[in-house]
Every structure is written in structure tokens, then in C-alpha cells.
Design goal:
Helix content is 31%, strand content 15%. It has helices at residues 6-26, 138-145, 159-162, 179-188, 192-201, 205-219, 241-252, 255-262, 283-286, 328-341, 395-419; strands at residues 65-66, 94-95, 110-115, 120-125, 129-130, 154-155, 177-178, 265-270, 273-278, 290-298, 302-311, 314-323, 349-350. Helix 2 packs parallel to helix 7 and helix 4 packs antiparallel against helix 5. The protein is α+β, with helices and mostly antiparallel strands and 420 residues long.
Length: 420
Amino acid sequence: MGTRHVAPVGVLLAATAFLGAPAQAGTAAHPPGTLAGTGSPVTGSPGVGSLLTGSPITGSPGGARGAAGAGSLEPGAEGEREPVGGSRLGERGLILPAGVKAPPKTAAKAYVIADAETGAVLAAKDAHGRYLPASTLKALTALTLIPRLDKDRKVRPSKRAVNEEGSAVGLVPRPLYTVEDLFKALLLVSGNDSAMALAEANGGLTATLADMNAEARRLQAFDTVAMTPSGLDKPGQSSSAYDLALIARAGLANPDFRRYISLKTDKFPAPKGYYEIGNHNKLLWRYKGMIGVKNGWTSKAQGSFVGAARRNGHTVIVSIMRHDGYFWDEVADLLDWGFANRDRVAPVGHLVDPVPVASPSPVAPVTSAPPVAPAPVSAADPSLAPRPPGSGVPIGYYVLGAGLLGGLAWLAYGLRRRFR
């Protein structure tokens, strides 16, 4: 073929070089660590460690520590932080304001007397000592579930709920009961069967215990760990006289909670008609101004109680834990002391307010984005300039086509002359 056939190859090489130059110029290198085409920084995906997880309730975040003796719980680390409500509430013995007569004696190992309106703790004993709460824990169950459940919803208890041990209202596995019926049975006759039926209506035992413990943290009741919705003794379950007062104070602000605990008697559904149930809180029947809340007892926890009464426009809360006998008269005496001294003494601590619930951020109205103006073109790099309308095919392709056709014609001409 000789030199006659070099021309087609040269044409092809020239066309390729011509097309390659603008292609390389138009692919500007992106700075390291940026997303191609945007200039935005490239960041790695968040790892597992960045996920928000619920922390288990351990120790005594409120500065609480276990009280000595059977039925008390092991403490967290002493001195981790100031006890919730004030430093004096971390003391184990009787805590009194200066210059005031001590409250009447009680066999309870721990108690708190507080002003419900101001939150002032008027006197206390081992306020943050952690003890088994027995059925006083049902106050937390009610406070947690009342906002979550429609009170008119019908509930069919499971066989497990019907057969729950301990005090019961006498449920049957039939859809006879509204949620409101179950709350009344929970708080009037301390129905453990009702506690389980309410937990099932809330999505099950696991979900309900998670909700109860979250509610305790919201109230800053850090001594409280719920392991059952009924208060039946279970390892790891605990509360304190301080926390019971916090729970009662929060409950009093809920109209349905307050209505349930104040009922002396009510009608409860039965397969044939109804029967009457009566409140186990004896002070509702015999203490002037008694609002109610909850009492409890198990052989391990012994007697516990949290209650509130209102006189002369003021409400006093009393909570006691681990009482080994008949405590009703002693609670009445503590309430009397609270009313007599509520405006005469400096507080020894305070019932803290719940953690505020964050309100959702306002959503900005959606507006159409303005058209984006074309980016200015650098004079140093004219190959990046946008092509005018109608120039969808680069000129380089026409040159390449022409070169290929010319090369083929030249090759055919050379072959033709050779075979002549």
C-alpha cells in the first residue's frame, strides 16, 4: 500500500485528537471530598453509635439511695449528684424546718409531706429511699395510660388478665368493659386484673412498662422503676416517698385521674347487669377534704400510701412507704400537721415540675423556587459555556464523520489503482 494508505489513518487520528480536546476540558476535576457536580462536601453515613437510644434506668439518677432493712433496694453511687428536690432530701433521717414541732410519729420508714400548689416539701423522712411500692404504683399506671386510651373503648380481657394474682375486681374474658370501667377498678379496688387488661389495651405489657418508665423520667421520678403495671412485687421494681408525691401531684392536674380517685363507690359491669365496687382508701370515708389517690400492701413491701386532701383552698400531699401495720390514723395526723404548718415553715425541699414536652417546630410554607440563573462562564475556559439552542450535536461529530468518509474514499481509490 505504501504511503498512499497513510492518509486515511492520519485523518482518523486527527479527528480523534480534535474531539478528545474539548471532552477533557469540559470534565473539570472535583475538589477532594466534594460531591461531583455540586461542590457539596461528601460525608460518611452516621454509624450505629450515632443513633438515639433509650437509656436503661439504673442506679439513682436523682441522688436516691436504698434504705436499710428488708424491702429496701440497693443504692446507686452515693453523692453522684444532688438529690432531686434539694440537698436536704438526700438525708436518711427526719428532715424538719427550723423552729417547728416535729410531725406526729409514724411507723413508716419513709414519708413526705408537701404542699401540692407550691410544691414545697414541708417535712420528710428518707424521702429518696427506694422501696417496693406495692399498689401505689397503680397511680403511675393510670397517669401514664389515661391520655393514651379512649375511655369509651370496649376491651375484652385476655385469660392472662382475668387470672392475674392478688387483688382483683373479677373480670371475665368478654367485651363487657370500657377503658373507663377498668380505670375505676384499678384505682378503687386495686384490681390487678384491670391493670393487666389496660396494659393489653395499650399494646401489651412490654410497651406499657416502657411508657410507664418514660413517664416516670418525664416527672423526674428517678427512684421509680416499673416492672409490673399492678405493683405486684418483682425484682428491680422500686419507688420512693418523694416520687409517689411527684406522681400524685401530676395526677391531681388530670381531671379524669382526679375524678377516678375521688369516687367512693361505682357500678361495675357483670355478665348479668352490674355490681357495686367501693374505694379501698379508708380516708375517703372519714377524713375531711380527702381527695384520694392510692394505697398498697404486699407481704414484701408492707404498707404504702399516697394521698391528697384539700381544705380552705389548699391541698396537702402525704406519701408513706414500708409501714408494718395499720397506718390510716397516722396518715391523717400527718395531713393535719401539713395543713397546720404549710404557710408557717420554710420548705426543706421542693417537688420538681415535670420536664416540659417539646412542641413541634412550625413548618414553613412551601413556595415554588425561583428559576436558577445560569452560572457565569469563566473566560479562561470557554469550553464550559452552555451551547445555544438547536446545537444539540457537537461540531466535532460532523468533523469525525467527514474524516471517516474521506478516509474510506481515499482507501477505495488506492485499492482500485493497485488492482489495475
